[in-house]
Amino acid sequence: MTQYSIEEEIIDEAAGGEFERTPVPQSKLKSWKSFLGMYAGEHAAGTEFVIGPLFLTTGVSAFDLIIGLLLGNFLAVLSWRFLTAEVAVKNRLTLYYQLEKICGKKLVTGYNLANGILFCFLAGAMITVSATAVGIPFDMPMPKLTDTTPNGLTWIIIVLAIGAVISIIAARGYDTVSKASNYMSPIIVLGFLIAGIVAINQLGVASFADFWAIWGEGSEPFPGQIKYTFWHVVIWSWFANAAMHVGMSDLSVFRFAKKASSGWTTIAGMYVGHYMAWISACLMYAVYLKTPEAQAIVAAGGAPSVAPGPMAYNTIGIFGVIVVLLAGWTTANPTIYRAGLAFQAIMPKTSTFWVTIIAGSVATIAGLFPAFAMQLLDFVALYGFILAPVGAIIVFEHFFAKQYGIIKNYAEQANIKFNKSVLFAWALSFGIFYFISVQFDVFLSFVTLPAWLSCGVLFLIFSKFSQKSA
């Protein structure tokens, strides 16, 4: 056994047996059932209560919403199945260690730190969502759309308590995260389904035509929102989780899969979660829009907003409160787990348990600030746009390295700590397409795919040149 292999085993043992720096062994692989519950729970989750109302505020039509979501979510499933899962089962490495082999230790350290922090912010938004449910019995003032800082001591105590519980569960490793999601996801899915049915009754829907008429031919967007068309819905729903699939973050999850076909389990997340749950939340928001409070805001030229907890409580009572609490929980759990892996890649000899506790602490602090949840849609779009092109580096190397004659895992093979080809490919792709988005007012999600393709192609070109001259 080489000294390198011995060191890897020692590091893996110290890290808590999560195989952060070694391929997952055959004995630890899991069947598709382990992923089904996790994806259903993670994507029928807290974010859905925030995202669902978006489609009413953007004035989308019934056809654009219902058919657009069908297509967009299917494209997301294909991305998970044929890109993420395919690469994951071949290498069985975390995203962070795979990148280290390609990019070098110094370059990937910056990526891991940024990625981990962004994951913490996303998890913090979900802690905020859960807190809006827990705060109902305490008559806690709910955060408004414009709130950025904590609005009282009760809010702070509730967020801290939820964050502590979620962090401990995430720190116990993948098995605990998966089990928690499997236990909770059926309750969450049932809650969204019941809430949608109740909301339909509250809206007086008696036929499919009445249901279709909720969106009809569309309307003018609310103040501060842009008008969504069919392609806005398709592309946005495809790349709502760009960081996870085309960005390759879920390599860290699917490395445990026995077969790449486990990638099809993301259907549970996309169609139970992103389809049924988004529409259900949209219907709950439609009920809220008919209230005198919302009508007064609309009359004054504002955009009505509502915290997820009260919105669900208004529809299905205390069960709605439980659903919102668990929904935020099941999203925050795997997100903090991923953040812990990112931090652990920076500190490989540190226990995964403790780096995940650190990640959970950062997420909890972020959860104290409602701005992360209130601006979630913009944050998710930007987050995916930043990270997705990095995933193209892994994908293009995996599928095209041999064809184009470049060395796989070049940083590891050449013993370099900073692969300039990676940085130049990402920086150019990000810079050019972000400039196009801002300068020409192009919907950010529309340029995510071009930026991803550009980064992959440029990486191959730069690698071919730099490796030949090295």
TrEMBL record:
The keyword Membrane applies. Keywords: Membrane, Transmembrane, Transmembrane helix. The chain crosses the membrane at residues 65-89, 110-133, 153-171, 183-209, 229-247, 268-288, 311-332, 353-373, 379-400, 421-437, 443-462. The lineage of its organism: Bacteria, Pseudomonadati, Bacteroidota, Flavobacteriia, Flavobacteriales. This is Membrane protein. It comes from Neotamlana nanhaiensis. GO terms for cellular component: plasma membrane. One of its GO terms (molecular function) is cytosine transmembrane transporter activity.
